Amino acid sequence: MSLDVPADLLNRAERGPVDDAEFVDCVRTSLPYAWRVISQVASSAPGSAEGFADHEVPPPSEAERGQLLRALASDAIRGGLERHFGVKLAFQNCHRVAAFTPSQVDSDRYRAFISPRGQLLNQSPELRDC
């Protein structure tokens, strides 16, 4: 299960659309490690000269790795985080997360990060089973 959904939020979702802020708060409380990593890159990107920030530190455990995978593999979760932080998230391997400011989404750096070449260059034997 990706998220720990409070009963009242689940009840509202069963009746219709839910507020994006409530959904993002559910993500924040359910996936605290993923939230910290994404918060860090999202807050660093706008202040960087390139409009880009990334996180390359492997998670301390499989539980934290799973949180990142769940957050970034879900279109709904990833989209909610992107809207909340105002960035475009990019993901390589099982731990490398990047945030790009909207103005950088069509940049050479963004295209290089999400390219097959970028993915291949970010491989190493210690990441094979992540």
Attribute tags:
mainly alpha, three-stranded antiparallel beta sheet, 130 residues, 7 helices
- How would a textbook summarize the main sheet? 3 strands, antiparallel
In percent terms, what proportion of residues is strand? 5-15%
> What is the averaged pLDDT score?
88
Tally the beta strands.
Answer: 3
Terminal CA distance: 19 Å
Helix content: 40-55%
Number of domains: 1
Shape: globular
Stretches where pLDDT is under 50 for at least 5 consecutive residues are none
Tally the helices: what do you get? 7
Strand order of the largest sheet: 1-3-2
Class by SSE composition: mainly alpha
Query: What gyration radius follows from the Cα positions, in whole Å?
Result: 15 Å
- Give the topology string: H per helix, E per strand: HHHEHHEEHH
Describe the SSE topology.
Elements: H1 7-15, H2 20-30, H3 32-44, E1 52-55, H4 62-73, H5 75-85, E2 88-92, E3 96-100, H6 108-114, H7 116-121
Antiparallel strand pairs: 1-3, 2-3
